[in-house]
Structure formats: C-alpha cells, structure tokens
Amino acid sequence: MKDLSISVRGTTGRITLQRPDALNAMTYDMCLAIEAAFDAWRTDPAVTRIVLDAMGERAFCAGGDIAELYQTGLQGNYAYGQKFWADEYRLNAKIFEYPKPVISFLHGFTMGGGVGIGCHGSHRVVGETSQIAMPECGIGLVPDVGGSLILALAPGRLGEYLGTTGTRMTAADAILAGFADLFIPQADWPSLIAALEAGADTDVLDQAAKPPPAGHLAGDLDTINQHFGGETLGDILNSLRHSGGEFASATLDRMARNSPLSMACCVELLHRLRGPSLTMAKALDLEYRFTYRAMEHGDFLEGIRAAIIDKDRAPRWQFADQAVPSASVSKMLMPLGKEALKLGETQMTTRNIGFVGLGNMGAPMAINLAKAGHKVAGFDTADITAEGVHMVASAAEAAQDADVVISMLPNGDILRKVASEVLPAMQPGALFLDCSTVDVESARAVAEKATARGLLFVDAPVSGGIGGAAGGTLTFMAGGTAEGFEKARPLFDIMGQKAVHCGDAGAGQAAKICNNMILGATMIATCEAFALADKLGLDRQKMFDVVSTSSGYSWSMNAYCPAPGVGPESPADNDYLPGFAAELMLKDLGLSQQAAEAVDADTPMGALAQALYAQFVQQEDGRGKDFSAMLPRFAGRGRQT
Q1: Which fold has domain 513-635?
Q2: What angle do CA 590, 591, 594 make, to 5 degrees?
Q3: Which of 290, 527, 545, 630 has its CA 20 to 30 A from that of 36?
Q4: For the CA atoms of 419, 421, 424, 429, what is the dihedral angle to 10 degrees?
Q5: How many CB atoms sit inside 10 A of residue 344's CB?
Q6: Catalytic residue among 94, 512, 587, 625
Q7: How far apart are CA 590 and CA 604, in angstroms?
Q8: d(CA 635, CA 532)
Q9: Which CATH fold topology does 349-505 show?
Q10: Bridge-partner residues for 15, per DSSP?
C-alpha cells in the first residue's frame, strides 16, 4: 500500500511508514498490514529482526488517524472505534512480546499510536529531533496503546505528570522515562539500518550510541514527585494550586487544556497498574475499558471537534471545574464483561464460581464476575438476587463443580461454619477464596482444613468499600500459597484494581486489620483536627488546603475528607450515608486488638480508637452512619470526659 512499505531485505523485515504529509499518522489499514507482517515474520527463519522507520523529516508517527473515528462516533456508531482500538491494542501486545529483535528509529514526533508501534520493541533509538509524548488527555482519551505500562514503570511519579500534561520528551527525557533506549545521531541511522539489513548484530546500535543532549525532566523529578504523589487528580491539582512558582503555574496551564475526566482516569489507571501485577495485558485491558466508552460517555468526540474539526481549541469538557467524582472515574474503568479486550491466547478462561455471601459487598463483586463472562452460582441466607448470578439453595450447592468458591462473610465463626459445608463439596485442586474480614486464627484454621482436603485456600480481605466493590476498584490483601494466589489473580483483576500477596495463610487478614487500625486512628485524628479548627475560627477549606499539602497529609484527609463540601466527594457530602459503616470499623478495630492481645503487642492508639468507636456506635447515634461521621460528634460538643 502507498502509505506503508513492507519488505524483507537480507535477514531484516523492514517496515517504513510513508505518510509524511500526515505526520505518518497510522490508519486502520496500516495497523492491520503491520500486524500481518509481524505475524508472517514471527516463525520465518529467514527474518531475524525487524526494523521500523518512517519517511519525512517531521515525524516517525504522530498518532492514529482519528478523523474516521470522529465521523462514525458522531453518527452514534461506536462499534467502529471499539474495533479499531481492539485491533490496534492487539498489535501493540504482539510487538511488546515479539520473540525477535524489533528496532525502531524514532525521529521527530512520536505520539499516541506512534508510541504503540515504536516504543514496545527491543531497541528504541532516538535522535536530535525526537519528541515523544502521550497527549491523549488533550482529546478526551487516556494514554493508551500500551503507553500506560511505560508510564507506570517510569521513575517516581513521572508517569502521572507525563500522562496528565502530555509533555513532550526530548531524547534524554524519553530514555529517562523508559520510552527509548539509545541516543544515536540521526546522520548515522542510514548506515546502521544498512548494516542491520546486511546481517550485522544488534550490538552495532550499542556501539553507535552516544550520550544524549541534556533534557529537563531529570532536574524536575523531585518537584514532580512532590506534586504528583497524591491519590487522585484532585490531590495533584490541590498541591499545584497551593505551591506557587513557575513549575506549578506552567503545569496547571497545561492541565487546564485537557479533559478533567481523562486526567482523573489516567491517574487512577496508573495507580491500578503500578505494582507486582503489572503486565501488558492488564495495561491494555484497562485502557480499553476507557476507550470502549470514550465516545459515548467520555470527552473524545468533543476533544476531536475542538482540536481537529472546528479547530477552535475551546473544548467544552465534562467537569470543567476539574472536580471529577470518583464514581465517574469508576464508571469509565469498570470491567467490560463479555466485551472485554481479547488478545488471542490471553483470552479469559471461563470459570465456574460459587459465591457465598451476597450482601452489600459480595453482590456487586459477584455481578462483576458474571459480567466478565464467568458462570456464578450464588448463595445467601437472605432472599436476594444479583444480576447474572444463578441463585442456589445452599452453600454446598454453590460449591459443587466450582473451580473457585468465594466467600464474603460477617465474621470468623460464620466462616468456619460455611467452610464445614463448602469444603466437602469442592473438587480437589479447587480454590476457596475468602474475602471476608475475620480474625487471623479463623483464616488459618480454614486454610489447614482446606489443605488437608487437597484444596487451595487464600484469605483476601478487601479495602475500598461498597463503591469499590461496585466499580471493580477493590484492593485485595492476600494470604496463602503462591499457587493459590496465581489462580485467584485473574479474578482479582476483575473485582479490583490491586492485589498484594502478603504471605502465608492469615497474612491477608493481618494486613487488613493493621491497615484499618491506622485508618480508624487517623480518621479520629482528622475529625478532631477539624473540630478544633472550628473552635479556633479556622475555615475548614483553608484547613484542608494546608493539611492536604503538608505533613498532615493522609488518606482520611485527602481522599475521604470527613468535612462536607471540602475536598473530593465523600460520604460526608451525602449526610454520612455509609461507604464504610462505623460498626464495621468497630469490628475491624476489635479484630486488631484481639490480634494484639494474642501476640502481646502494645497498641494503645488502636485500643483508644476501638473504645471511641464503641461509644459512638453502641451509646450514641453512630450505628448506620459512615465511620467519618465522627466529625459532627466532635464538632457538636466540648471536651469528652
């Protein structure tokens, strides 16, 4: 095709982009042709490596050709864009895992789709004119084509900065951030490509590499880490707004041009990816959740209109005040179920799942598993239903023929009782995954019984509340064998954003109660501080502005502020209807003190927090309210005796 040259020269497969007048933007047909070449050369012994380059002086590839995406989306045809992105992401994954060297020469602009084909190979060469960027938030998307994986692996919080601002990287910056490997003067590129085509080893690239001219990101990294380390977009903007200085001002200007929803989802996406479970498949899956919805629910069509069609550079973004509700972020990144991205051999294996305990947390978790295509049989003592879940008459029936049995139960005694019914009904090699928050000893006792029956057991209590269960954004703290954790991992990816293998059986419960002991104590301290600020005549918003960007920073303050109308939206803005009920916090603090007593640990702050929540729930009006409702308790009275 005229837009693309594909040939074999010597032992090298050569792909050259040939749309210089369009900055080599990649069309759908080009994407399919490149994939076909990679597929053909994968098992061809005559082709030992692939070289990617482009015609013209201005760009390797400045992105994807989005005009047709806009036209079809404007007509309400979202399927074309969804297919385009799915096929493009499949190509990105193939390049990332390709078994032969893939050498790309990235001159000029390399952005968006150009990153997808040029920055996932084994040898990524940049030169004097290279400018690499992920500017997707400026058109209502998120950094995609696997670029989120690179951003998540970038030093410190550089990924959040590059993703939300779309900052262009020089050669040195791109190497620092992980988008490139080698700086080679561009005058040397033709001879190196000729040598590779003649069969030279890829070592010739290392020998030709030179130190790149200095970039600017290395000098800004400490400042970037300072401002972009928050949990949400709101934290980042708050830090920048109260900083002052040239860096903060310039960064806020860049971010003001971009879609707030896209930036908020970019931050959340990178936080979900960062950690030991990061894979290209996971990155592309999360990206596709957003792009699948981008036309219908996001800002993509408006972003293209303002940038490409009308060129007025005045997009009318959703959430123009940049205050993006967490529910809107969760909606864009929820699992797609049967519409989820499929990458050939990485397609999901459908499992038979038994789910016992379909309460406020369990029901949405089970629904997300069913939407993802799993067969879910559910049981609960209450007469309830859950979309896509086949309800059965007993816990034992839910466990029959199940590959995995998941439980979400109120306490350790009930867990032991359910285990006595479920374990005998399970097939050898199946997994019992308990997501309840219970005492450590109950978890270990059930694990021992499961092991004796030839079953796998993982205790994996969750953090994230009802909203996290519904939105698929839970964090799992898992204890058990490595084999059990790996069997559970694909389900964790559907139900949550992160799973950490904490150790042997019971370690997940230990991590959860330690985490919630900290949470309970810091929430009390946060509420006390707001009440004190009131009595000192300090405005609550000013208090938040100072503390949220100072050493008093905490999750209780920044992400779950107990003061109505202050900080990001939280239960405080909904009359303290519970996201995490005060009686559940009391339960978890009780578990922490029970564990502390068992191992003779001194936890006076945890004990005081338990006593305060016991008084709040049992003697005052705290039952049925969010655990952050401690604030009106303190604000409405003087010193407690």
Answers
A1: N-(1-d-carboxylethyl)-l-norvaline Dehydrogenase; domain 2 (1.10.1040)
A2: 85
A3: 290
A4: -40
A5: 8
A6: 512
A7: 13
A8: 8
A9: Rossmann fold (3.40.50)
A10: 6, 52
C-alpha–C-alpha distance, residues 26 and 28, integer Å = 7
Token pair in block for residue 47: 């082709």
Residue 596 corresponds to which tokens in the numbers above?
């502390």
pLDDT tens for each residue of 304-345 = 999 989 999 999 999 999 999 888 998 899 888 788 898 864
The two tokens of residue 542 are 């000013």
Take residue 543 and report the two structure tokens written for it.
């208090």
- List the structure tokens of 128: 């004097």
Domain assignments of the chain as residue spans, ordered by start: 4-337, 349-505, 513-635
Strand partners, 477: 500
Query: 208: Cβ–Cβ under 8 A, 6 or more apart, which residues?
Result: 182, 184, 188, 192
- What digits encode the pLDDT tens for the residues 384-424? 999 999 999 999 999 999 999 999 999 999 999 999 999 99
Start-end of H helices in 18-157:
28-42, 67-74, 79-96, 113-118, 147-153
Structure token digits, residue 222: 């400490």
512 is catalytic: yes
* CA–CA dist 364, 495 (Å, integer): 9
Contacts of 447 (CB under 8 A, 6+ apart): 457, 459, 479, 480, 505, 506
